[in-house]
Amino acid sequence: RAASVARQALNKGIKAKAGFTITPGSEQIRATIARDGLDKPLKDIGGVVLANACGPCIGQWNRQDMPKGQANTIVTSYNRNFTGRNDANPETHAFVTSPELVTALTIAGRLDFNPMTDSLTAADGSKFKLEPPTSDELPSRGFDAGEETYQAPPKDQRPSVEVDPSSKRLQLLTPFDKWNGGDLDEMFVLIKVQGKCTTDHISAAGPWLKFRGHLDNISNNMLIGAVNSENGEKNSVRNHMTGEYGGVPDTARHYKAQGKNWVAIGDDNYGEGSSREHAALEPRHLGARAIIVKSFARIHETNLKKQGLLALTFQEPSDYDRICPDDLISIRGLKDMAPGKPLQCVVRHSNGQEETLQLNHTFNDLQINWFRAGSALNFMKSKQ
After folding, report:
1. Parallel, antiparallel or unpaired: strands 328-332 and 184-192
2. What is the mean pLDDT of residues 31-57?
């Protein structure tokens, strides 16, 4: 349908008046649109085909036409438009619409262009309106698998992976520690998150993605976008060992270095948005043992389980309000943890008083084994 709009413009001798990028979501999509000739009209009106990847949708866009900090508007057909998502510029206003409408607006060069009522000017000066785009619902010849890029390892030897220890972008993973067999006692509250907390708040995309292969470096963005309920600020939490305020990752690193476990407290639909694994890997890497919230986004909840973290919800959502940032949190009942069986949360307040809350979970038997082994990968390795 987008190619149909582009062909109409080409037939009238005009091209796009604004920057126009096309991002194939996979090698299969790139190969299919190339085979069927759909990429040519898009390129002929001035479009630039980017790599087969998430691209601007996840912030992998080396945008050159707009200085960071300058207010501007883009229109995309990506399914994410969080603040700063596409180009790491918080002043970019991103509006989401269909690919064909993105194409029409790009050709017109105006945000107020209505292709159903407004006219465009052809190369010869005449006026014309775009016809409703047409297309097949699915490729008539099916999808083209594209180029095969997989390289199988040698059959006669076990390959080794070597990474430069000084690399800032790649780092070999080390297994997370196993559950020690006991309850988790008197853990600090690293942060009590106030309000919406997506995976972008937990692990920002954009320029941080160059560290995707280096867990320690990308962990420097952990929860820096979340609002601390104690002071209403982002990336500012009180260190309960020093009394000083600092960044969330820095404080977590200090706790970890001192052998002190911590938990994070969250609101409703914690972890909504992208399914990125780093939003679960980073808390685990920096010493978290549990994430306790009113409710989870489903995929993030499972990702936390895979990394050996306790993903728990308040049995009474109002118990969120009973947690203070300076409380000590103990989780009891882990030895007898079973599907559908609540765990107990003993909250010790700074005045010495204690109260016990009930925490629900959705762990099945396999996922409980993940927790006990320290992660899903640990458990899988133990079965080899």
Report:
1. antiparallel
2. 91
Smallest Cα–Cα separation from 175: which of 88, 285, 249? 285
**Alpha-carbon span 378 to 361, nearest angstrom:** 21
pTM of structure: 0.79
DSSP code of 145? -
Question: For tokens 């476990």, what's the residue?
Answer: 261
Amino acid, res. 272: E
* Weakest mean pLDDT among 144-148, 321-325, 334-338: 144-148
Tell me the pLDDT of the chain averaged across its residues. 94
- Worst-scoring range by mean pLDDT, 155-159, 179-183, 233-237? 155-159
pLDDT of 80 over the 80 cut: no
The residue to which tokens 């982002």 are assigned: 234
- Residue 320's contacts (CB-CB under 8 Å, 6 or more residues apart) are 265, 267, 293, 294, 314
- Spatial neighbors of 193 by CB under 8 A, at least 6 apart, are 201, 223, 226, 227, 228, 229, 264, 265, 266, 267, 270
C-alpha closest to that of 376 among 281, 290, 247: 281
Burial of 244 from C-beta contacts in 10 A (0-12 / 13-18 / 19+): exposed
Tell me how far CA of residue 256 lies from CA of 47, 180, 262, 274, 348, in angstroms: 49, 16, 9, 27, 21
Query: What is the C-alpha to C-alpha distance for residues 321 and 229, in angstroms, rounded to an integer?
Result: 10
Q: Which residues contact 230 (CB under 8 A, 6 or more apart)?
A: 192, 237, 238, 325
Instruction: Give Cα separations from 343 to 337, 363, 364 (angstroms).
Output: 7, 11, 14
Q: State the residue for tokens 């069927």.
A: 36
* Rounded Cα–Cα distance for residues 83 and 90 (Å): 5
Determine how many CB atoms are found less than 10 A away from the CB of residue 256.
Answer: 15
- pLDDT-derived band at 238 (thresholds 50, 70, 90) equals very high
> Measured between alpha carbons, how far apart are the two ends of the chain, in Å?
50
pLDDT for the residue 38: 94
In angstroms, the CA 343 to CA 243 distance is 30
